[in-house]
Amino acid sequence: MALVWVTGNSGAGKSTVGGVLRARGYVAFDADEDGFSRWIDRATGEVVVDPPDPVPGGWLDRYGWAIVRERVEVLVEESRSRVAFLCGSAENEADVGDLFDMTVCLVIDEKTLRHRLATRTTNTFGRHPEELAAALKWNLLTESIYVSRGATVIDASRPLAEVVDRVLDTVQELTAAVRGCPTDRDGHRSA
User: Whole-prediction pTM value?
Assistant: First the structure.
């Protein structure tokens, strides 16, 4: 079937979209919460076991959020008979891009980004000035980067149900194109 990478900047709504997908009965994992990603020391490659929260000044210059290829490879094997979603972002995601059948990038404007990072309760990343500066910087670049990689870009400042429906419609279009016939949102052939 299809393994879909749902990505975007911090605060774009990846975890929230994943939660709605799960509530609707889809297989969806959160790369942050479900153990697919971790902090690493860029200089040594070592895993950071207990990262500071909030991060001190300069910390993000040395340490990065990385996805673990081996974990995604296992998900690929488990997803052969169904559509599955992995929601997250990582600076090394190009290292796993070949494992996904499609990428959906959630984008938001700066005002929405600032509001979400300041008010979210599931993750503190983005509240510290250094983290916020990094998120704002990446927000300016996200859409153009993912368009150049062939991702489907979705405006995640829209109502949540509309965003999730657009993600599912995108997957439906992919599975229909691959099979050469219409399919429903689960990737099953339509009559």
Answer: 0.87
